[in-house]
Structures are given as structure tokens and as C-alpha cells.
TrEMBL record:
InterPro entries: L-rhamnose_isomerase, Xyl_isomerase-like_sf. Gene3D superfamilies: Divalent-metal-dependent TIM barrel enzymes. It comes from Mucilaginibacter paludis DSM 18603. One of its GO terms (molecular function) is isomerase activity. The keyword Metal-binding applies. This is Xylose isomerase domain-containing protein TIM barrel. Keywords: Isomerase, Manganese, Metal-binding.
Length: 424
């Protein structure tokens, strides 16, 4: 399945007059409009290979039609996303779910769709067929050295897979922890995990980064061995300059001030990047921006301010990824919505009047500071996002185009109505 350019152009032409009117209206009020458009065009968000099929809950899984049955088909789906919005130019693989049979062929296929390989993800939270050791009681923290060694070797294997594909980072998310008081010694678990991570770190090429993701609970419900940003920061500081803390938005206790965490990790030069999603209760992995878009904007406000203060390149200096699961919606539509939500928050952060904000902060004008942020947040920037997509060769309205071009119907024709995506 390919999105044909002439069909996309036809779709855009029908919307063009309306779009131009909306764009000019918002552009008239934005002083730095060219800069905003250029930054939006450069901004790419990696798609996780595991989000291309319907997920599920422990109560059931209801697969949709035309889901990708192989790594090749997952790449094809990300190709569809990227053709529609020109902002999904990368895929993040999970090993062993996505082991390529032929690295060169996979690289060529990805390149044909304009995609690169983002962070590689290791998996020591499930037992793999034929593996001698079990991760039931943890992996890098395990009391038994044989289990730790198996988990370390797996991570090193994932790095090797990534080198072949041109990836530059390894994301480690650990399910390790305990579900009952007394089950483990916290200090012992930390020390063993650190020792295991050091061995993985030692296998990282010089131009690679290790992203250490934290999560407050689940699957363990009493303690998690990398539970929060402080613990992740402790590990990565001890590991060395190639280790960074990854923020998954759904991995915090309720009401955590994520934007403040982001600001301080950036300040310390230890922010790896993101797993974007949204949540109401826990690690819900809902569509980005579907529950709390103001928080997303506040995070981007800190990112833009903090990255500019450090002279960082917004598009390339952090890892931008989505981590989502879809139980009800078409996964591709859900991802298009997520990306649009990220672009909207980013565009709003780019139009914040920073000088005025700094001036208001200097004189403790609290009301004005709030007004300045909310003015940006309440600006309807959707036409700016559409314009950036159009200029890059994508759709004015990616979901509208996806439906009009009948992409899902075509995928079902090609792959069948009853397919189950490989992976989780
Ligand atoms: C788990 O909760 C983490 O968010 C992981 O980043 C990710 O969801 C997992 O590696 C994919 O199953
Ligand atoms: Zn995650
Ligand atoms: Zn998660």
C-alpha cells in the first residue's frame, strides 16, 4: 500500500482555498511564522513498531483488519503515516518482536519510505521461547547471576541489531521490581541493576546513547527498580555521559508536575527524550493530547525554553517517540491524531512571547505570566501545522486524506480482515 502523490494532491486541492483563509488568519498574529513553519517541518516523531496494531487490555484484545503481519508491513504502515503528515520519518523497533531477517533489505525498504531507525528497544519483561532463564523475578536486578547475564547479553544483541540498521540509541525499560514488601532488598536490587547496566553501557558504540525509562508501577505493584526520574537520574549519572533519562508521560504518579521534571533533566543535560502518550489514571497509553493537552503544551514550553537556553537543535538533539496502545481506534488514525497533538503543542510553545514572559517573571506579575502562556495555548494553530505538512509534501488534513484515500480498506484487501499484528 502506497499513498499516491497525485491522489494526495487532489485531496489537498479541494481543501486549499479554505486552508489558505485559515492560515492567513492565524499567520497575521504570529511574528515568527516562517521560523515556526520551518521548525514544524523539521520535527519528526518516531513511531513504535508495536503501536501499528490494536493493543488490548488483560480483559481482551479485539484486532482490527489489515494489521501488519511482519516487520516489512510495519515499515509500510509508518510509510503511510509519513506520506500523509511528513512528520513520522522514523520507526522504533522492539527486539525480539522485530528481528530483521535481512538487515540490508530492511534498511532499503525503510529508505524507500523516507524512514530511519530510531531507538532500539530491548525486551527482558517476557520470557522468550527456548531461553534457559526466566524473568519472572526480574532481569537486570535478578538475584541469580545467570538470569542477569542472559538479560545483559540480550541488550548487547539489541545494540548489534541496531548498529546494522543505523540506529543510534538503546531504550531500556525494565519491569523489574517487587510486588510485596520483603520480597527484595532495595539496595541490593539497585546495585545489581547498576552493575548489569554498566555491562550494557560498556558495549555501546561511542556515538550511541542509552535511554533509561522509569515507571512508577506495573507490572510490579510494590516497588519498581527504576521507579521515577530521580532513580533513573541516579543510574544514568553513575553510568556516564552516554546515558540519559527517558520520560514516558504515562509513567508518573497522578498529578506529577512532568514539565518541571523535564526542565530539570534538561538543565542537567540528562533528558533522553520522550515516549509520548496521554493518561487519565496510570500507564493508559492513550492518544497524545486526548486527556490533558494543556500539560502537553506546558511540557513543550519547557522544552523550547530549555533547549534554546542550551543551544540545542529541537529536531535532532532529543529522542521523540510515541508509546501508545489502541484498543478501539484504527491504529493509524490514532497515531495521526497523536502526531497532530504533538505538533499543536510544539507550535503553541514556539509562539509564546518569551521576552514578555521573562519580564513578567522579573516583577512577579503572576497574572500576566499566566496570560502570556494561555494566549499561546488558546491560539488555534492547526492551520500552521497543516501549512507545514503541505509545504513538506504531506496532507492538509492527514486523517481526512487517510479516509478519503481509503487506506484501511486497501490494507484489508491486501492483508485480510483478520490479521493480528506481530508483537505484544
Ligand atoms: C512500558 O510500560 C513502557 O512504556 C515501554 O516503553 C513500552 O511500552 C514497552 O517497551 C513496549 O511494550
Ligand atoms: Zn514507554
Ligand atoms: Zn508504559
Amino acid at each position: 500500500m502506497q499513498v499516491e502523490k497525485y491522489k494526495l494532491d487532489g485531496f489537498n486541492n479541494d481543501l486549499l482555498a479554505d486552508h489558505k483563509r485559515r492560515f492567513e488568519f492565524v499567520a497575521a498574529d504570529v511574528a515568527n511564522v516562517d521560523d515556526v513553519l520551518q521548525k514544524l517541518e523539521a520535527f519528526q516523531i518516531a513511531i513504535p513498531s508495536w503501536a501499528l496494531g490494536t493493543g488490548g487490555t488483560r480483559f481482551g484484545r479485539f484486532s482490527g483488519g489489515g494489521e501488519p503481519r511482519s516487520l516489512e508491513e510495519k515499515i509500510e504502515d509508518v510509510g503511510v503515516l509519513h506520506a500523509l503528515n511528513k512528520s513520522s520519518g522514523a520507526i522504533s523497533l522492539h527486539i525480539p518482536w522485530d528481528i530483521p531477517q535481512n538487515h540490508q533489505a530492511i534498511k532499503t525498504l525503510a529508505a524507500q519510505h523516507g524512514l530511519r531507525f530510531d531507538a532500539m528497544n530491548s525486551n527482558t519483561f517476557q520470557d522468550q521461547a527456548g531461553a534457559p532463564e526466566s524473568y519472572k523475578f526480574g532481569s537486570l536486578q535478578h538475584i541469580d547471576k545467570a538470569v542477569r547475564d542472559q538479560a545483559i547479553a540480550h541488550n548487547i544483541e539489541v545494540i548489534k541489531q541496531g548498529i546494522e540498521l543505523g540506529s543510534k540509541s538503546l531504550t531500556v525499560w525494565l519491569a523489574d521490581g517487587s510486588s510485596f514488601p520483603g520480597q527484595l532488598n532495595f539496595r541490593g536490587a539497585f546495585e545489581r541493576t547498576l552493575d548489569s547496566l554498566k555491562q550494557i553501557y560498556a558495549a555501546l558504540p561511542d556515538d550511541w546513547k542509552l535511554y533509561l525509562e522509569y515507571k512508577c508501577y506495573e507490572p510490579n505493584f510494590y516497588s519498581t527498580t527504576v521507579a521515577d526520574w530521580g532513580q533513573s537520574l541516579l543510574y544514568v549519572t553513575k553510568l556516564g555521559p552516554k546515558a540519559y533519562t527517558l520520560v514516558d508521560l504515562g509513567h508518573h504518579l497522578p498529578n506529577a508536575n512532568i514539565e518541571q521534571i523535564v526542565s530539570l533533566l534538561l538543565m542537567e543535560g540528562r533528558l533522553a527524550g520522550f515516549h509520548f502518550n496521554d493518561s487519565k489514571y496510570g500507564d493508559d497509553d492513550l492518544t497524545v493530547g486526548s486527556i490533558n493537552p494543556y500539560q502537553l503544551f506546558l511540557i513543550f514550553n519547557e522544552l523550547v525554553e530549555g533547549m534554546d537556553a542550551r543551544g540545542m537543535n529541537h529536531a535532532t538533539d532529543l529522542g521523540w517517540m510515541i508509546d501508545a496502545s489502541h484498543n478501539l481506534k484504527d491504529p493509524i488514525e490514532d497515531l495521526l491524531q497523536s502526531i497532530q497533538a504533538i505538533q499543536i503543542a510544539y507550535a503553541q510553545a514556539l509562539i509564546v512571547d518569551k521576552e514578555a514572559l521573562v519580564a513578567a517573571q522579573k516583577v512577579n506579575d503572576v497574572a500576566l505570566a499566566q496570560e502570556i502562556l494561555q494566549k499561546a495555548y488558546r491560539t488555534d494553530v492547526r492551520a500552521l501545522v497543516s501549512e507545514a505538512s503541505l509545504r513538506a509534501g504531506g496532507a492538509i488534513d492527514p486523517i481526512g486524506a487517510y479516509r478519503k484515500l481509503q487506506v484501511r480498506e486497501n490494507l484489508i484487501k491486501e492483508r485480510g480482515a483478520k490479521t493480528v499484528a506481530t508483537g505484544l
